[in-house]
Design brief:
Layout (H helix, E strand, L loop, with lengths): L11 E6 L2 E7 L10 H11 L7 E5 L5 H12 L3 E6 L4 H5 L3 H8 L3 E4 L18 E4 L8 H18 L6 E6 L3 H9 L3 E6 L4 H11 L8 E2 L14 H14 L8 H11 L7 E5 L6 H12 L2
Helix pairs in contact: 1-5, 2-4, 5-6, 8-9
The structure holds pyridoxal-5'-phosphate (PLP).
The site of pyridoxal-5'-phosphate (PLP) has 20 residues, from helix 1, helix 2, strand 7 and helix 6.
């Protein structure tokens, strides 16, 4: 199978949650190694002529979904993959779990370096010609092609189902997926910041798409400050409730906050709502372990 065959479509199903019916776009099912959001964002690379490249370089957290997708991508294309991250905690170094172990199995070369944040300000121009540099989380202009395809699929779904209105909801990290989706989608996109606050997200949108009319609407908790990757009992609870009520496994970093806010907004919508499942459930193994440890404290 050609690599990009997997991007042709992802199914849409109906789910019920807290008395409301929604459409769920299963981008998590795009591919075992490239599920979801990262499949969309790295689609541009699949179209690239890679013959002149030897190496892929990126950086970020040690359980990142982007890291796994890039590692799988590099393996399939015989590229060396160097990934910079801050020094690993001892337990993780001894027993790599979750996304870290998956990426290492794909042959990723992990470089632990306290100064890895220096990469934040780097661009492709800072690397040799045989090296592709990917920003943390894949926030880059190449992400646009794949997300545009997602917009096309949503439009086709709306036509098939005679929907003239639709509200589309998805979680944000870097905001790249949400902003490119809004740029190409005729329906309104709503998103929730998970990595930084609304200000940070707005800035990220502007960096990728300068016209504010093409930005998604941001929802956030009015007062609560939530830290990315931290554990919140209400996150685990809504994740479990979703699993029981919809029979779909969501992920534990981005989805819970987004669903907590969305569930409060559902009654306000008179039009159908679609949630994009952006994948990432392979990271759940390590998150569930953390929640279990947390619960016994
Ligand atoms: C990366 C990721 C996001 C965030 O996507 P951005 O384009 O960075 O906003 C959301 N959900 C999942 C599951 C992800 O892996």
């Amino acid at each position: 199978m050609e690599f990009y065959d997997i991007f042709k479509s992802s199914p849409v199903q109906k789910i019920q949650f807290r008395g409301h019916e929604l459409f769920l776009k299963r981008d998590d099912l795009l591919h075992a190694d490239f599920g979801g959001n990262k499949a969309r964002k790295f689609f541009g690379f699949f179209l690239k002529d890679l013959s002149k490249y030897r190496k892929l370089v990126s950086y970020g957290g040690n359980q990142s979904n982007a890291m796994v997708s890039l590692a799988a991508f590099a393996r399939h294309h015989n590229l060396i993959f160097e990934y910079f991250t801050k020094p690993l905690p001892k337990f993780l170094k001894e027993y790599p779990i979750g996304n870290l172990s998956r990426a290492l199995n794909f042959g990723m070369q992990l470089i632990e370096n306290e100064a890895y944040t220096e990469f934040i300000s780097k661009t492709q121009a800072d690397f040799p010609l045989d090296t592709i540099f990917v920003k943390q989380g894949g926030a880059m202009t190449e992400a646009e092609v794949g997300v545009k395809l997602l917009a096309t699929e949503i439009h086709a779904f709306a036509v098939e189902n005679a929907l003239t209105e639709l509200a589309v909801v998805l979680p944000s990290g870097t905001g790249a997926t949400a902003v490119f989706l809004q740029k190409h989608l005729k329906f309104k996109v709503f998103t929730v910041p998970n990595v930084g606050d609304s200000e940070y997200l707005k800035k990220q949108f502007t960096e990728l798409v300068s016209n504010p009319d093409l930005h998604p609407q941001i929802w956030d908790f009015p007062n609560k400050k939530h830290q990315f990757g931290a554990l919140y009992p209400e996150y685990y609870e809504i994740w479990q409730e979703l699993l029981i009520d919809t029979k779909v496994e969501f992920e534990l970093l981005y989805d819970p906050k987004t669903w907590l806010i969305l569930s409060e907004k559902l009654a306000d919508f008179s039009c159908p709502v679609m949630y994009i499942h952006s994948g990432g459930i392979d990271g759940n193994i390590s998150m569930i372990k953390r929640y279990e440890r947390f619960a016994t404290l």
